[in-house]
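User: Design a sequence. Structure:
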């Protein structure tokens, strides 16, 4: 419609321009020359408008086109509308790119956009931190020149991306790479930090290996004695020794299973409603008798207890934490050691401490003491019946009370295991509700 209208205007303008020349030529003569002058004048007018258009497009570049007349008016207006549409599309594209980049920055993965040859044209902030890229300095660089790992180079060049590639960067960080087609001739490379997953998988393997090892030893002893009883009749002292040993190994397995069940029960309760009043002084009074029985006079045990200091919490978990700390001090310190157990109110809250003047713990072992099955002296721990689970139970039980186990040790002088419960958990004669996640 606009095109037909423009041609009509062109013909109309040509006719209007030639009409005076036609009339004047019929009156005075020289019709061809007058028509030629009129056509040249119309062409000159179009040439001027063409120059104005060229100046606006390439030199002026203002938002508003020059005012047009006649057949040039719809042309200028159409160009203006087309330019406005292009500006809107560029703005929309810009907003779309911003939203994409904002979303990519929010992802928990490193994102890199490259060509099929590996040339980088964008990456998010996490890619800069995990992969060591720099932006915009690395724009246009080939990613194979920046990530110099033979496995990664083969992975990109083989172009078989059905399975992810896992690399270990800097000797400790595990990254999982996935590559997918982003658009024609472009790749979207995603790298995810799976270090924690690998650590958890390693912890799971170690856990089952340790459990299998811990159970295999007593089972081997029981199986050996049972085979001896089956093959020959055992009497007297030999029979009593066999029965005593089997009972010890059975108690050891029973204790291990009970501690595993306690640990898994504590771990399976991520949220506790700490409304239960826990009478810690009464608990310590009972533990004092048990600790003295367990020690059999080999240690000098002293209890210092605030008789009125009760707290809100979970009785079972606090009992597990406190009893494990007390039993550990008796089981893992040599005879003649002085053991001090303290439960006192402080300005920071309720403080529980177990201190001994035994040989102490080397500093390199302290950060790992709360790991499952970790022992400083494995041979001695097995002799005393230690499973390596006690401090792991303490750690998880205290975390549910928004507390943590502090361990300090000066070898040859003093070792202290302690934890602090917040003042809000101390019972002050009023029923309170405290929830810890």
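Assistant: Done.
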């Amino acid at each position: 419609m606009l095109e037909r209208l423009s041609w009509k205007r062109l013909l109309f303008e040509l006719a209007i321009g030639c009409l005076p020349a036609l009339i004047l030529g019929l009156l005075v003569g020289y019709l061809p020359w007058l028509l030629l002058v009129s056509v040249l004048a119309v062409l000159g007018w179009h040439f001027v408008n063409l120059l104005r258009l060229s100046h606006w497009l390439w030199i002026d570049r203002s938002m508003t086109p020059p005012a047009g007349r006649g057949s040039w008016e719809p042309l200028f207006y159409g160009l203006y509308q087309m330019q406005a549409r292009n500006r809107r599309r560029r703005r929309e594209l810009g907003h779309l790119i911003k939203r994409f980049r904002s979303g990519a920055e929010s992802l928990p993965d490193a994102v890199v956009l490259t060509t099929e040859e590996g040339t980088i044209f964008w990456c998010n902030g996490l890619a800069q931190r995990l992969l060591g890229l720099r932006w915009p300095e690395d724009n246009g660089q080939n990613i194979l020149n920046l990530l110099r790992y033979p496995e990664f180079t083969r992975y990109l060049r083989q172009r078989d991306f059905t399975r992810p590639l896992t690399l270990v960067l800097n000797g400790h960080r595990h990254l999982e790479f996935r590559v997918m087609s982003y658009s024609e001739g472009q790749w979207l490379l995603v790298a995810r930090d799976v270090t924690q997953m690998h650590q958890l998988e390693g912890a799971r393997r170690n856990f089952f290996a340790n459990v299998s090892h811990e159970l295999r030893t007593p089972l081997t002893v029981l199986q050996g004695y049972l085979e001896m009883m089956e093959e020959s009749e055992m009497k007297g002292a030999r029979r009593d020794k066999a029965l005593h040993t089997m009972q010890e190994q059975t108690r050891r397995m029973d204790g291990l299973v009970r501690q595993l069940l306690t640990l898994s029960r504590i771990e399976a309760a991520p949220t506790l409603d700490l409304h239960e009043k826990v009478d810690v002084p009464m608990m310590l009074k009972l533990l004092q008798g048990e600790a003295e029985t367990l020690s059999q006079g080999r240690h000098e045990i002293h209890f210092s207890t605030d008789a009125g200091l009760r707290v809100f919490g979970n009785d079972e978990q606090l009992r597990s934490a406190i009893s494990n700390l007390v039993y550990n001090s008796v089981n893992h310190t040599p005879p003649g050691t002085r053991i001090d157990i303290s439960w006192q109110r402080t300005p920071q809250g309720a403080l529980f401490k177990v201190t001994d003047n035994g040989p102490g713990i080397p500093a390199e072992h302290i950060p790992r003491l709360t790991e499952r099955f970790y022992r400083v002296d494995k041979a001695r721990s097995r002799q005393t019946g230690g499973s390596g689970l006690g401090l792991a139970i303490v750690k998880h039980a205290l975390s549910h009370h928004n507390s943590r186990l502090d361990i300090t040790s000066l070898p040859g002088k003093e070792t202290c295991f302690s934890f602090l419960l917040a003042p809000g958990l101390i019972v002050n004669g009023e029923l309170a509700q405290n929830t810890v996640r």
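The two ends are 72 Å apart (CA to CA). The longest strand covers residues 173-183.
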